[in-house]
Amino acid sequence: xxxxxxxxxxxxxxxxxxxxxxxxxxxxxxxxxxxxxxxxxxxxxxxxxxxxxxxxxxxxxxxxxxxxxxxxxxxxxxxxxxxxxxxxxxxxxxxxxxxxxxxxxxxxxxxxxxxxxxxxxxxxxxxxxxxxxxxxxxxxxxxxxxxxxxxxxxxxxxxxx
Length: 161
Fold this sequence. Notes:
Pfam families: NosL
Helix content: 10-25%
Shape: globular
Structural class: alpha+beta
Signal peptide: 1-18
Strand order of the largest sheet: 2-1-3-4
Strand content: 15-25%
Number of helices: 3
Keywords: Signal
Distance between the termini: 59 Å
Protein name: Nitrous oxide reductase accessory protein NosL
């Protein structure tokens, strides 16, 4: 009988579980830097949008839509019909990005992000939209400074709430 050492077994288990929970992004639907000339909801150029920007990609066509905030994306998505097919959504990862300089930063799929909702940080458009983070610790730091609670995608408020 072969014995597997506990550290080795844990390493193998960790490697097997790595990446679980995040579906692969369809080809052509990866996030892009915030360079859109205008956003889908209000026509604002992305470089003028502070805070938690968002993107959506219609997987069937590869067509992309850009939003000044996660709240705008959620509102847009609410108005879509059921025949749009798979929609891949991203939020700007504010784990390592400063809010004000509008750094294009990194992006994280909204299905895997941690969000701070109910905070007091305005994005310059009279909104306090959900703020996305890839790192739970960064979400906790943001919430300790600006209030709010931490949730995953399923806990995001419905548009208008």
